[in-house]
Amino acid sequence: xxxxxxxxxxxxxxxxxxxxxxxxxxxxxxxxxxxxxxxxxxxxxxxxxxxxxxxxxxxxxxxxxxxxxxxxxxxxxxxxxxxxxxxxxxxxxxxxxxxxxxxxxxxxxxxxxxxxxxxxxxxxxxxxxxxxxxxxxxxxxxxxxxxxxxxxxxxxxxxxxxxxxxxxxxxxxxxxxxxxxxxxxxxxxxxxxxxxxxxxxxxxxxxxxxxxxxxxxxxxxxxxxxxxxxxxxxxxxxxxxxxxxxxxxxxxxxx
Amino acid sequence: xxxxxxxxxxxxxxxxxxxxxxxxxxxxxxxxxxxxxxxxxxxxxxxxxxxxxxxxxxxxxxxxxxxxxxxxxxxxxxxxxxxxxxxxxxxxxxxxxxxxxxxxxxxxxxxxxxxxxxxxxxxxxxxxxxxxxxxxxxxxxxxxxxxxxxxxxxxxxxxxxxxxxxxxxxxxxxxxxxxxxxxxxxxxxxxxxxxxxxxxxxxxxxxxxxxxxxxxxxxxxxxxxxxxxxxxxxxxxxxxxxxxxxxxxxxxxxx
DNA sequence: CAAATCTACTTTGTCCGACAAACTGATAAA
DNA sequence: TTTATCAGTTTGTCGGACAAAGTAGATTTG
Lengths: 255, 255
What we know:
Two copies of one chain form a homodimer.
Chain A: H1 15-28, H2 41-48, H3 52-65, E1 68-70, E2 76-78, H4 83-96, H5 101-122, H6 125-140, H7 145-162, H8 166-179, H9 182-189, H10 193-209, H11 213-234, H12 243-254
Antiparallel strand pairs in A: 1-2
Helix pairs in contact in A: 1-3, 2-3, 4-8, 4-12, 5-7, 5-8, 5-10, 5-11, 6-7, 6-10, 7-8, 7-9, 7-10, 9-11, 10-11
The structure holds a DNA duplex (30 and 30 nucleotides).
């Protein structure tokens, strides 16, 4: 047994990791801005003094993390991680952890209400126009559960956008991605599910337009309670989110 | 210009991506369970019929996504994506999007209150014991801002854990990772900041113990308002979260 | 017989060199 | 001006190579 450690542990992170970390540092610190080119693989090989395979492994890590992407000509660029892609990863994690619909519902209720409150305060004319447009489309496809479910998901994304709080937009997305796909099932199951949904959206939009926070919150709550009642007619809230949803999310991501 | 497309677009995803997708499908679908070995690189080479470099690039993608990891002997295993790692990625994204402290504060207020409400309902004896333990430690390090800030962050993680809602735990984490590091600055700045913080924790724990939801919410709100007042003495809430915090988060992640 | 040591084998991380396909940019032809 | 051609880059993939670290089985030692 050595008397006392003479030397500190040396850093033995693999080279590809160091490459990834080095590039990540430059991007996160702001020295490389989104849109800036990173250089070709060969240039990186020369700069880091490692093999191209090693550089490529490092690049894959950052590409997956959403910090790098390849433009149309496949050249490397720094970029801002897209919320959507991150949210998909999170949703996947929630599925694997087998969270229940009760957990999703609880959080969605909280976040959608917060979303509405902020939207009532801050929605711009443009936000309202987008919401109105969405509502008009919903009314047209009221008989088509799949299309209506998509409209519903979009509507709530738009409300979140109108909140002008990007943290909120990001925070609600993972639960929403798992939560809203069930809307199709629910709407096509119950009889007046579709009309109640559109009605709720109409009142919600009206509340945002009139800057009436209490009404906005009330209709958001009612809207989600409707979802819950509809869901409970089909399955238990304590059922865990299933792999089915993940496959749905993957299909969406790829298109 | 061709009259009409005779052929469908051929799938030209790179091989490493196909490898990653194939393994991901097996894991997400549940056919490979967390903890199951994936096999050695050479086995994957044989199964997929591609080069080892290609397999390795595919593996990197999944490793970064948190679906694969290498155990102590560096063999590949499927695993559940850790919330912590995902949250770090999200925090990084928030930094790059230059969100403001106001946005963080707004969402944290919402989620911490929700967290408290659920914790009051569902905290077990064990949860309460952990919180009490944390509180005792806080009282010991009340004069050490760095240690106290860490205790504070832990306290809120424990409250979220006591909510027994995993979606909530995950949803609050990204904002918290950026929000709480400022506690150190705030506590060391104001005079009674530290005592007020510990006092809030004490009341909060007491509320959870007594299942008193109103008191829990009230003290959570007061606690966060304290943070806000403290922060505003130092900087504007509309300042964007800075790169500094990201470096802090990276240091934490590595240890 | 149990514990420690040695040895042969496997696996990972890295490197090298190679090549086809796709893309770039510029020049030549219609 | 548009189209065709062509040489040079760059990426994606391949095959093979090797040192370091880990594994497991055989062997020695107490």
